[in-house]
Amino acid sequence: MDADTDEAVALTDLDTDEAVERLAGGGLLAYPTETVWGLGADARSEAALSALRAFKGRSDDAPVSILVSGAGALSSLGFAPTPAAQRAMRAFWPGPLTLVLPCRGRFASGVVRADGAVGVRCSPHPAAAALARACERAGAGPPTATSCNRSGDPAADSRDAARAVCGDRVPLLSGAEAGGGAPSTVVDFSGARPTVLRWGGVGEAELSARVGALEAA
Fold this sequence. Notes:
By secondary structure, the chain is an alpha/beta fold. It has one domain (about 5-215): DHBP synthase (Alpha-Beta Complex). The protein is built from seven helices and nine strands. The model is unreliable at about 1-10 (pLDDT under 50).
């Protein structure tokens, strides 16, 4: 494919099937969630994660989360959620709650934390949910669930903002706009007691009512 054709593809919004094909081929994709725009890459591909970090300008080793369709997708990916994590998923998924869980599955080094844990997100946004389901059906991904922005800049909160970030290098998923809700609460379930890494759309009272006592990071 020549440079002119490649640029034309990058400037065209992709439907879900085209987006899955791009992710499976190692490309990057911007997609809307109920909060801000996300940046997707094949979470099993070292090359795709390297491209994602280069695009965002991230030099740190902080892992990025993945997007799944729901709790039913976790077993085949190598996750075995604790009872507390299962209660949290039943109460708040799909929704703004990212769970950090021990995982035996194979993911790229940019996804897995040093202790083997992986952050998992399940978005209620129709476009993000459809993308996650389509990737699972195709055996691709799962896609990453990091924000669409350059490192240190605000996350893209609209299609226009996402297009400004992505330019002619990364296509956008066609259709809906991001929801603009609060960012996800991030809870680490890999230890003896759930540890809150970031507060967001799920508050302390409702979370502790479901999973019990919480630790602060």
